């Protein structure tokens, strides 16, 4: 049975195996990899430092970098196996309002088509409500049928599909 857990260095080898399933340079939404874009994430020290950055990003008493927002990160795991990631952005900036939304997620390629994204999104919605949000924006690529279904199964109502610098994005609102 899958669960959401805070990022941890104990899952480093499983996380690295999952990373290697993705094509080089692929965007993995919800992972927080942008916090360590140029780092050698495979090194134990760098991985551990990145995990700490992920945890710290939810602390509103700590300033986040320009263009960033506070966010809570979870990893989707089963036992000691990393299956994916999901994050909840506490508020939106202009870029997130246009492209990224409040919640981002990705599932490692070998774990797809099991309903994990639908489950994880549903598990994070009460966390968004606890932050005081009354609705959340969730986006996906226009051609990502699986993600669109996950959002719709969690009550997502399509507002629009718009052309952005990141391609055509479907934008859904979920009322909490």
3D structure, described in words:
The strands form 2 sheets. Strands 1-2-3-4 form a 4-stranded antiparallel β-sheet. The protein has helices at residues 12-19, 44-56, 94-100, 116-130, 145-153, and strands at 3-5, 71-78, 81-89, 103-107, 135-141, 157-164, 167-175. It is globular. The protein has 5 helices and 7 strands.
| Rounded mean pLDDT score | 94
Extract low-pLDDT stretches: none
Content-based structural category: alpha+beta
Counted beta strands: 7
Main features:
176 residues; alpha+beta; 4-stranded antiparallel sheet; 3-stranded antiparallel sheet; 7 strands; 30% helix; 28% strand; globular
Q: Topology of this protein?
A:
Blueprint: E1 3-5, H1 12-19, H2 44-56, E2 71-78, E3 81-89, H3 94-100, E4 103-107, H4 116-130, E5 135-141, H5 145-153, E6 157-164, E7 167-175
Antiparallel strand pairs: 1-2, 2-3, 3-4, 5-7, 6-7
Helix pairs in contact: 4-5
Q: What is shown here, in short?
A:
The chain contains five helices and seven strands, in the order βααββαβαβαββ.
């Amino acid at each position: 049975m899958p669960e959401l857990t805070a990022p941890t260095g104990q899952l480093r080898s499983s996380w690295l195996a999952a990373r290697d399933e993705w094509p080089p340079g692929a965007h993995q939404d919800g992972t927080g990899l942008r916090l360590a874009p140029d780092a050698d994430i495979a090194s134990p020290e760098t991985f551990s430092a990145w995990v700490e950055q992920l945890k710290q990003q939810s602390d509103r008493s700590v300033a986040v970098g320009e263009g960033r927002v506070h966010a809570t990160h979870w990893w989707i795991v089963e036992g000691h196996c990393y299956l994916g990631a999901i994050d909840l952005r506490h508020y939106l900036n202009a870029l997130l309002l246009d492209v990224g939304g409040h919640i981002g997620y990705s599932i490692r390629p070998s774990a797809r088509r099991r309903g994990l994204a639908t489950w994880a999104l549903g598990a994070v919605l009460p966390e968004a409500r606890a932050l005081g949000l009354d609705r959340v924006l969730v986006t996906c690529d226009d051609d990502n049928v699986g993600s669109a279904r996950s959002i719709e199964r969690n009550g997502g109502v399509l507002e629009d599909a718009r052309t952005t610098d990141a391609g055509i994005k479907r934008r859904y609102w979920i009322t909490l």
